[in-house]
Design a protein that fits this description.
14 strands; 2 domains; globular; Muramoyl-pentapeptide Carboxypeptidase, domain 2; alpha+beta; four-stranded antiparallel sheet; six-stranded antiparallel sheet; 38% helix; 364 residues
């Protein structure tokens, strides 16, 4: 289905496929309708590549491979379930034509990607002769993240071709990337480590107001979809959003910790702190506890239990928190910007993903 055929709710302006595809639970979590163990969040995607670059700067090592590999695996797991094994066997035996399947799947994946804010996609071509020269190529304009975009394409090829792949990409115009997935091999040890954690529901007390027309959370009306360009923005700030798996982000951070060591979480927090301080973020955006609680819940980022802000320090608790290291760095950056001080930050994340953060001025 082309994006032009997607139905927009006339009341709240949200694509109805978004409301049909996801469920907003009372725990502050957003899950896939057909698999409620699969969690998703709306993340401010313009943070992502600067965050990855900032982490690389802090630790002195490139991390694009780890970022792409984790996303590749997550995408592959989704795509492979879209084609029954019986159909894959028939393709391998050349008893049916692959082209209608590839074209159909790529059409679905590109439309879904634009709906999720990944950018604008064009299918370029493919080859499937079951040898080392097979490939799958697309073009992406305004990608939400360059390394995550590579992972998405590699995972798509692996899900369709049922073989490991790697991606080469080049910028052919400003913010336009041509990407080609080829067959390639990956570390077995890496594959074993890249395990995505299923979400286990716990009841909470979040009650989101609902649109009377489509039934989606009314807070989604604060987002604006440009489906043709594959871009989602917040109406108030103009910041770009994308729908991503927090498990993919967490798996990236976990893999970096395996490779770099126990200093990695602090490096991630520091990179996020620097980004927040260098941007237009303001502590006023989270000062209203009720509004901030609703914002977190509609984005699927958890259930805000409490927050306190003052010159003496800042603290909060979020149950079912997502991408918690990014949250910690955000809180520290907002505090330092608001009060023009350097700070210390401590946090604790429980096995149930309940996050507590405490920021205090240095020397206090």
């Amino acid at each position: 289905m082309p994006v032009s055929d997607l139905v927009i709710c006339p009341e709240c302006g949200v694509p109805e496929q978004i409301v049909e595809s996801y469920i907003w639970l009372n725990s502050g979590v957003m899950v896939v309708n057909t698999d409620q163990t699969q969690r998703l969040i709306f993340v401010e995607s313009e943070n992502l590549d600067p965050l990855f670059e900032g982490i690389a700067e802090v630790i002195g090592l490139p991390i694009e491979r780890q970022v792409s590999d984790v996303c590749r695996r997550g995408t592959r797991n989704v795509v492979k379930d879209m084609v029954p094994q019986e159909v894959k066997d028939l393709i391998t035996k050349r008893e049916i034509d692959l082209e209608p399947i590839v074209m159909g799947l790529t059409d679905v994946m590109m439309t879904t990607s634009q709906l999720m804010g990944f950018g604008k996609f064009e299918f370029i071509g493919y080859r499937y002769e079951q040898d080392e020269s097979d490939y799958l190529t697309n073009r992406c304009t305004h990608p939400y993240s360059v390394p995550l975009g590579r992972g998405n394409l590699a995972g798509t090829m692996e899900g369709i071709y049922d073989k490991e792949s790697v991606v080469e990409s080049r910028e052919v115009a400003p913010d336009v990337y041509e990407q080609t997935a080829h067959l390639g091999r990956h570390s077995k040890a890496l594959e074993e480590r890249l395990k995505l954690r299923p979400y286990k529901h716990r009841d909470g007390d979040i009650e989101l107001a609902r649109c009377s027309r489509c039934g989606g959370p009314t807070a989604l009306a604060s987002f604006e979809w440009n489906l043709e360009d594959g871009i989602i923005r917040t109406k108030g700030t103009g910041r770009r959003l994308a729908v991503v798996s927090p498990d993919v982000l967490e798996a990236v951070f976990d893999e970096l910790e395996v490779e770099v060591g126990e200093t990695m979480p602090r490096a991630i927090v520091e990179a996020q702190r620097r980004f927040i301080k260098s941007s237009s973020y303001s502590i006023d955006e989270i000062s209203d506890e009720r509004e901030f609680r609703t914002l977190l819940a509609v984005r699927g980022c958890g259930n805000l239990r409490n927050i306190r802000v003052g010159k003496a320090g800042m603290g909060l608790r979020i149950d079912n928190a997502a991408a918690h290291l990014m949250v910690v760095g955000m809180v520290q950056g907002l505090f330092e910007t608001a009060f023009d001080v350097e700070s210390n930050v401590e946090w604790n994340i429980s096995e149930d993903r309940d996050l507590e953060v405490n920021v205090t001025p240095k020397g206090a």
